[in-house]
Every structure is written in structure tokens, then in C-alpha cells.
């Protein structure tokens, strides 16, 4: 069974460019989460979706960040325009609809470098 | 304020020795509790979780954790570490559905 899939694994871009990160959750999971990990701030929850609907986006740093989940098997996190301080590892996680639904399964992450 | 604390930023342990990583939380009620491990360049992998019931929880890779309500702690243990256990370990709590809050992490170095 495939786990959470993220692409690309690495992204290097220049300041001002648009960046799109992609995530495919585990099939059958109905909650999806986007996290950012930096040395300074650790792991931060940016936004999460339940049944494709954004539930809590209070962690999204600013309007340059947006996330969508057009269907149950795909989500994107977009940064436009990107800035050097956005450099981080971005993780996507999904959670099953059964049981408590609290347990989250993480993807391998996308390492973003903004020059 | 709600919080989760991992007091040890870095721990060095000899291969074969025992390991204990500390985690304390501050919440109004007992939250759901988790330990995750992150190997270099990898995502987070769930080691174990506590929702209710038996306060000693067994996980993967030989790890266990004990929930102590009186101390608001959920410490992770392994009796004998292997070189492959070198990684960063995160304690996480979830007071409500979906809102996992992570500690700052403990980096474990295993020496020969």
C-alpha cells in the first residue's frame, strides 16, 4: 500500500517565483494536513482539510500561501511570490476516517530552497 | 497555554545502552499522545500512540512509552539502542481532532 506521496522532493527557485507543492494522500483517508519544518520554528501546522474542505488555515503564514484540495486524492500548496524565508521542508500528512482519525501518516516531504 | 515540551534537545547514547526521552504536556484534559521518529532526510514515522487504557504502550522498533497522568508525561524508552536508532524524535499531542502539536524534538546520537 502506497504511503503519502509528495512531489517534487526537492525544489530550488528564485525569489518572486511561484512554487507549487503537491500531495497525494493515502487512499481512503479523509483528512489532509500541510506542515512546514524549519530549524527555528520546528514543525508547524499550516492548514488541514477534512473531506476536501479546509477546516483550519490559521497556520498559513500570509496571503502568499494558498492550499487547495480539489478531490480526495490530490492537494496543492502554492506560494506566490516566494521569498527566501519560505525555505523549509514541507510535509503533507493524511489521516484515516475510521477510528479516532487522529493518527497522521506523513509523506517524505518537499525541501524548498528559495534563493 | 497548551504546550508540549521535550526538555532534552540532544542525547548521546552508546549502542546497546538504554534510552529514555522525556515529554511533558500541559493541557486541560488528557490529550491523545504520540511519538514520531524522523531519520535524516525522511518524513516522520509513527512509533506509538496512546489514546486510553493501559498506560504502558508498546510501539514499533522495540520502543515503549509510559503515560503518567500525575506527571503529565509520556516518556519514550528503549532497553537497548541500535545504531539505526540515531534520529530525531518528536513527541506530539492532539487535544482535538486534527490539531497535532509537536514538541521541539530530541536528537539522538548513537556511539559505537
Strand fraction of chain A:
over 45%
Shape of chain B: globular
Distance between the termini of chain A: 36 Å
Taking pLDDT < 50 over at least 5 consecutive residues as the criterion, the unreliable ranges of chain B are none
Tally the helices of chain B: what do you get?
A: 0
Tally of DSSP helical segments of chain A: 0
Greatest contact pair?
A-B, 23 and 21 residues
Q: Which structural class do the helices and strands of chain B define?
A: mainly beta
Question: How many strands in all of chain A?
Answer: 11
From N to C, what is the helix and strand string of chain B?
EEEEEEEEEEEE
Q: Biggest sheet of chain A: strands, sense, closure?
A: 7 strands, mixed
The helical percent of chain B reads under 10%
Mean pLDDT rating of chain A: 92
The end-to-end span of chain B amounts to 41 Å
In this structure, how is the largest beta sheet of chain B organized?
Answer: 6 strands, mixed
Describe the structure.
The complex is a heterodimer of chains A (115) and B (112). In chain A, 0% of the residues lie in helices and 57% in strands. Chain A is globular and about 40 Å long. Chain A has no helices and eleven strands. Chain A is mainly beta and 115 residues long. Chain B has 112 residues and is mostly beta strands. Chain B is built from no helices and twelve strands. Chain B has strands at 3-5, 10-14, 19-21, 24-26, 32-38, 44-50, 56-58, 64-68, 73-78, 87-94, 101-102, 106-111. In chain B, strands 2, 5, 6, 10, 11 and 12 form a six-stranded mixed beta sheet that branches. Chain B has a four-stranded antiparallel beta sheet with strand order 3-9-8-7, with no helix packed on it. In chain B, strand 5 and strand 6 form a beta hairpin. The model of chain B has no long low-confidence stretch (mean pLDDT 92). The A-B interface holds A 4, 31, 33, 42-43, 45, 48, 50, 55-56, 91, 93, 95, 100-109 and B 32, 34, 36, 42-46, 49, 51, 90, 94, 97-105.
